[in-house]
Automatic annotation (TrEMBL):
Family annotation (InterPro entries): KdpC
Protein name, per record: Potassium-transporting ATPase KdpC subunit
Subunit relationships: The system is composed of three essential subunits: KdpA, KdpB and KdpC.
GO CC terms, sorted: plasma membrane
Family in the record: Belongs to the KdpC family.
TM ranges: 12-38
Function summary: Part of the high-affinity ATP-driven potassium transport (or Kdp) system, which catalyzes the hydrolysis of ATP coupled with the electrogenic transport of potassium into the cytoplasm. This subunit acts as a catalytic chaperone that increases the ATP-binding affinity of the ATP-hydrolyzing subunit KdpB by the formation of a transient KdpB/KdpC/ATP ternary complex.
Major subcellular location class: membrane
Taxonomic classification: Bacteria, Bacillati, Bacillota, Clostridia, Lachnospirales
Annotated localization: Cell membrane
Recorded topology in the membrane: Single-pass membrane protein
Presence of the UniProt keyword Transmembrane helix in the record: yes
Length: 186
C-alpha cells in the first residue's frame, strides 16, 4: 500500500505537465495559428479607419456593441443582460420604460417599435439589429442629419449581412458600421 507522500509526487508531476501542455503550449499554438490564418478576427475584428491626415484610428469591434443614444445615430439594442423572466412584471416594466424612451426620442414616429429595440440580447452586447429596427429609425436619422431618408436606407442596406449560406441566422445590420458611414468615416 502506497503512502500519501508516494501519491503526491506523481500527482504534482501530472499537474505540472498538464499545466504546461494545456495552459501554455496549447494556448500558444491556437493563438499562433489564429494570428496566421485569421489575424483580423484574432485581434477582435476592430474597425480601423484611415483619417484624412493619413493616421489610423480604431473605432470599436464589429462583434461588440457600442452604445449610441443621440438621435442622429442608429441606436442598437439595449446594453446589459438580465435574468428576468420574459413574462414577469419586472421585464414588462423594463420594456415599457424602453418604449417610452423611444417615443420621447422620436415622438412623431407612430410605427410599431421592433422588439429588438426594447429587449436586450442574450449577450447584452449584440452589435446588430434587425433591418426592421434600422428602418424604424431611418426617418429620424435623416431628419436629424438633414439628409434624405433614401441615403440613410442605402447605408442600412450596405451594412446589412444576409444569413450565412442563405439559411443560418437572420439578416442583421451592424450599428457601428452604419454610424461610422453616417459620419463619413467608412
Amino acid at each position: 500500500m502506497m503512502g500519501k507522500t508516494n501519491l503526491l509526487r506523481p500527482a504534482f508531476i501530472c499537474f505540472c505537465v498538464m499545466t504546461v501542455l494545456c495552459g501554455i503550449l496549447y494556448t500558444a499554438a491556437i493563438t499562433g495559428i489564429a494570428q496566421i490564418i485569421f489575424p483580423k478576427q484574432a485581434n477582435g475584428s476592430m474597425i480601423t479607419v484611415t483619417l484624412k491626415d493619413g493616421s489610423k484610428k480604431e473605432y470599436g469591434s464589429e462583434l461588440i456593441a457600442q452604445e449610441f443614444t443621440k438621435p442622429e445615430y442608429l441606436i442598437g439594442r439595449p446594453m446589459g443582460t438580465s435574468n428576468l423572466s420574459p413574462v414577469g412584471k419586472e421585464q414588462k416594466d423594463l420594456v415599457q420604460e424602453r418604449i417610452d424612451w423611444w417615443h420621447s426620442i422620436d415622438p412623431d414616429n407612430t410605427a410599431k417599435i421592433p422588439m429588438d429595440l426594447v429587449t436586450a440580447s442574450g449577450s447584452g452586447a449584440d452589435p446588430h439589429i434587425s433591418p426592421e429596427a434600422a428602418q424604424y429609425q431611418a426617418s429620424r436619422i435623416a431628419r436629424e442629419r438633414n439628409i434624405s431618408e433614401e441615403a440613410v436606407e442605402e447605408l442600412i442596406e450596405k451594412y446589412t449581412t444576409e444569413p450565412f449560406l442563405g439559411i443560418w441566422g437572420e439578416p442583421a445590420v451592424n450599428v457601428l458600421k452604419v454610424n461610422l458611414a453616417l459620419d463619413g468615416l467608412l
